[in-house]
Amino acid sequence: MNLQDKIALLKKELESKNMAPKADEVWGNIDRKLKARLRKKKLILSSLALIILAICYIAVNNGNPASNEPQIHVDDAVNHQPVREHNPVGLKTDQKNLAIVPLNENKAEIDQHTQRIAVPRIIRHMPGNGPLKTADEKESSASKQGSEDNLSMVLKTRLNMHDGENTVDTDVHASPKNETGLIDMLEKDTRVVTEKNENISVIVEDSVKKDENKIADKNSKADSIQQKTKRYVIRPYLGIVFNQLKPFSVPGKTYAYSLFSNYSAGLLLDYHFNPHTMVSLNLGYIKLPSKIEFLQKDSTSNEEIIKVLNTNNLILGLEFSRFNARKNICYNLGHQVTVSGRKRNFIEQEMNGKVIYNQQKQLPQDFQDKYFSKIDFLFNAGLSFYHDRSILRINYYQGLRDVSRTTVLFNPHAFIQLNYAYQLFRF
Amino acid sequence: LDIEKIIKECKGNVQQSQRALFDFFYEDMAKIVMRYCPNPDDAKEVLNDGFYSVFSNIGAFKGDSKFKTWMTTIFIRQAIKKINSNKTFPTLMEVSVNDNFDFGIADYDNALVKLETKELVNIIEGLPKFEKIVFNLHVFEGYKHREIAEICNFSEGTSRWYLNCAKKNIKCTYTKLNHISSR
Predict the structure, then answer these.
(1) ipTM for the complex?
(2) pLDDT of residue A380
(3) Out of A10, A13, A21, whose CB is closest to B40?
């Protein structure tokens, strides 16, 4: 026998000496891993798609004059703060936010001589900021505004309102490039503002000929509306929850992980101390996680079992939030209590045709007692960023059940909540 | 079996094709893995990780080499990774040797031919881990020292050192057995 033959023989002998594992055993694990990988891929893609959709929604909403979001910015004549900057999340409006914006009864016209837009009657009332402005004040306001023109990319059109002796200037920022479009938009948005936000007081005079006494009456009416402003706001929310696939080993033959999950919904009752400070009470429902898998391997029958557990949680939460309107940042701190209703929702699923679906079967009592009969306390600390009226909120939760989440919220009134959660169940 | 078609489908995560590819190559890959990891549990883990790696990275296979060769490299790397992760074995000893260093094992070939196959199997399985890896790669897989060095992440000289140590072991065993039989 030569060297090559001997090596071939030796190779064969080495390969056949020990029994190779059965193909089915190996495939089972690979299959599971591949499926998990595919699920993870889908999860990432769907998350990305949702984020893109949300961004598109914000972009479209901000640029669409016909949308519910007001598209005009009426500057504060005194400190040049846009009204919405005072009120980033539609909170209670204080006196500084009171603004009178043009309404639609009489069409605005362009003065042929001055090339200015002559609006029949647009009066801006700032109860906290003194009387209506004079022509001199108008000039100083105009010069201030001129410097802003260089910085701002939006179209700015000046509206001059003549009211006998007084002249009031209102600067209107708007995106449409023609004046007709601007007027249309003013009409629409004014309507939206008056309908949507009870807190903003609007006084409109239909005719130039009405006397100032009427204006004063309207102003006092606005003050009374202001005094009646509600401190409570109820916000509904609907959440989409994503769980990170998180397999991990535990002693013995059992391990668990949470899978793609589903939704949360509820109501937030906000109490506003002022437009920048609030406490929220959260009463909600969350289904999280949707499944837990127990993979038990019986050495004699080589049987694998999957048991699935649905978790329904009632949420009771308290959160303190402080807004910094200038920086468009909100800091929040809170506590959540979830009362688990998971005991009754245990079901079984089959795997590899071995285990039969069985809704009645319960988890071992000691397991239930240990993990599911207690209330979960979640600590929540968050940071929110505001752009216009949309919010990106990043929250961190930490609790007894090792849950951490990143939450993204858009729109303060009815927001979508994306949770990316880790659920670790220890045995 | 149209391997080209199956590979293409595997790139699209078609489960049936993945199973078909697995079935087609399992036996060959199991044999290779068993040479490096005789322990069935270790072999199972290597096969597991190896096939998962193949399916995860199948998109990167451009057809420059044979698919089996590409797969074999993945499994060998997985096996080496497994062996390296085993703390009971000594860690790698990097050595600096002259390429022309004479180990005095010229009659290794003679020993390899004359020794019984079973004896040789026992000797090879009893080799220290890196000697065994290098011996397997060089003698059975036909890898060059440059390639072995690349796979194992050590120098070519170190690869040569381990191969010659393995050969020396075989020769010594042969000499011992010869001595015993002559007595």
Answers:
(1) 0.73
(2) 61
(3) A21
